[in-house]
């Protein structure tokens, strides 16, 4: 059976929280999508008319993590470390599993080319086609965690 972590570790959760930030009321993300909490994309059937509590934001984060963890475990076909899993989770949390699925990053991971995979994080620093300083910092942090 393939061995790799099943849950996001503390380093991954901290990285996600740091870069997503906590917003208890609705806002539009960098590409204009309605968002709340720790980067939870608001689905069409969800209503967030009132502010979240911190506890509710934590619950949403846990739900989002579980969904993405399942997707990540299906995509990665080689053993990886907790730090690699956490870095990939931060990436998937931000961009979604579909972006990872079609990426050179995942191809490198699944070929156990981990140095090349780490460098691929840095390619994903754009929103709306434009490089963003915040995404550049995030990808550098994900790369650093991946290599640790």
From TrEMBL:
Keywords: Antimicrobial, Bacteriolytic enzyme, Glycosidase, Host cytoplasm, Hydrolase
SUPFAM superfamilies: Lysozyme-like
Family per record: Belongs to the glycosyl hydrolase 24 family.
Entry-linked CDD domains: lyz_endolysin_autolysin (cd00737)
Gene3D superfamilies membership: 1.10.530.40
Catalytic activity: Hydrolysis of (1->4)-beta-linkages between N-acetylmuramic acid and N-acetyl-D-glucosamine residues in a peptidoglycan and between N-acetyl-D-glucosamine residues in chitodextrins
Example GO molecular function: lysozyme activity
Pfam families listed in its UniProt record: Phage_lysozyme
GO biological process: cell wall macromolecule catabolic process; defense response to bacterium; killing of cells of another organism; peptidoglycan catabolic process
Coiled coil: none
Domain of life: Bacteria
Protein name: Lysozyme
EC number: 3.2.1.17
HAMAP family reported for this sequence: ENDOLYSIN_T4
